[in-house]
Amino acid sequence: MKGRVDDTTTTLRGMRSLVWATWSLFAGLFLLLMGGGMIATLIGVRAELDDFADIQIGAIVTAYYAGFLVGSRITLSQLGNVGHIRVYAAFASVLAATIVAAGLKADPYVWMALRFAMGACFAGQYVVAESWLNELASNEIRGRILSWYNLTTVVAYGVGQFWFTRLDPLEITGFAIASILISLAVAPVALSEDAAPPMIVEPERMTLRELLHHAPTGMLTCLMVGVTHGAFLGLGAVYATRLGLTLSEIGLFVSIPTIGVILMSVPISAASDDIDRRAVGALAALTAAAAATGLLFFQPDTWQGLLCVVVIGGTTYPLYSIAGAYANDWLPPDRITAAAGQLILMYGVGAMIGPLIGSAAMSRLGTDGFVWTAVVCHIAIAAFLLVRLFQYRQPFRAKPWSE
Q1: Cα–Cα distance measured from residue 4 to residue 281, given in angstroms and rounded to the nearest whole number
Q2: What's the whole-model pTM score?
Q3: Which value, to the nearest 10 degrees, does the dihedral of the CA atoms of residues 30, 36, 37, 41 take?
Q4: DSSP string, 129-198
Q5: How is 70-126 classified by DSSP, letter by letter?
Q6: Longest Cα pair distance anywhere in the chain, in angstroms?
Q7: What is the C-alpha to C-alpha distance for residues 146 and 131, in angstroms, rounded to an integer?
Q8: CB–CB of 211/342 below 8 Å?
Q9: Residue 28: how many CB atoms within 10 A of its CB?
Q10: Helix 173-184 and helix 84-104, axial crossing angle in degrees, nearest 10
């Protein structure tokens, strides 16, 4: 009993020490993601108000995720050369400039290039934050720290989306405010005396073929989740605008999934630790599909429609974590870090494809195309996980390091 008390005390002390050392990073991320949520909603609504073609809107969203892939690939090498804080500041500077430029010129082709740059910068910031926290946190407290990191990013993004309701998307003001928030995000990180990010070492490598051999279910689920999230997140503001919602209603629609994340993500993730992750993921995906179907019957400006969106947010966001955790269950311990980068890559590839599928569906089916994309994508995830569940009934790691 005394040993457990001592371990708990040590864990709490480690938590307090790490939180104190990284408060500046969390503060910077909150400001950064507020600006990110605001600009994503602004661009989606502005593109619709300026009558951009469906394929152009889809291409703008896809360009963001293409930049996300590139940014995540180049950031690790730069971290090794100049360190976390300098990379963070450089990306924030470029990001602030591209946001202002987007406000100056509302052209679909210019926005494709600018959204590509924004995606690369945001990916770089995520890599900086996650590598920083993973290197500083011990195994005993890593899960808690990363859960606070995930909650911080989701809440900040939602606050930025809701703040959009006070802005006129046809004016440059919103773009300028988003740029200011991202510029301010550098200050706490650069000026904190407690910020002590670790040195980066070259991680072990793992090819996509190797990952497919070791963990095909987790890898392919990440790809499918990317398609689903790319369409749902990238085109949500466009969908709400086409329904004729007011700016405040649009802001509420795109930000209210955050409530679902806060209420449901932790219980779902905890359940996946005790129950077969494939079963939990399939149930979550089916629930999201059912909630999305509700949007065919209830407008998103009604309480029933908003409840559907809350449930979608609470059940779709944990899917990536479940897929990644299941992949890690089947990987040798010395390959987990390398596999994480490839799982992000698969998610990013899917997120590039999703907006193109969603925009094509909306072009063919009207506004309901957005809903049907969400329904079909979630059903596909559930079906895939159930098939794999019935194919592999054996207990965890019955086949060493391979499904």
Answers
A1: 33
A2: 0.78
A3: 170
A4: HHHHHHHHS-HHHHHHHHHHHHHHHHHHHHHHHHHGGGS-TTSSHHHHHHHHHHHHTHHHHHH-SS--PP
A5: HHHHHHHHHHHHH-HHHHHHHHHHHHHHHHHHHHH---HHHHHHHHHHHHHHHHHHH
A6: 67
A7: 11
A8: yes
A9: 27
A10: 170
Query: What are the structure tokens assigned to 216, written together?
Result: 């095909």
Rounded to 10°, the helix 336-365/368-391 angle is: 140
Angle of CA points 172, 250, 268, to nearest 5°: 120
Closest by CA to 381, choosing from 215, 221, 226, 269, is 221
Copy the structure tokens of residue 221. 């689920």
Structural tokens at position 2: 């005394």
Q: Is 303 helix (H, G, I), strand (E, B) or coil?
A: helix
Tell the burial category of 51 from Cβ atoms under 10 Å away from its Cβ (0-12, 13-18, 19+): exposed
User: What is the token pair recorded at 4?
Assistant: 């457990």
Cα separation, 92 vs 95, in Å, equals 5
- The structure tokens listed for 230 are 């790319």
The predicted-structure confidence for 49-107, as pLDDT tens digits, reads as follows 888 988 898 889 889 988 988 887 777 667 667 777 888 889 999 999 999 999 998 89
Residue from 321, 357, 359 nearest 340 by CA: 321
Three-class secondary structure of residue 275 per DSSP: coil
Length of the chain: 403
Q: Smallest Cα–Cα separation from 36: which of 107, 139, 123, 135?
A: 123
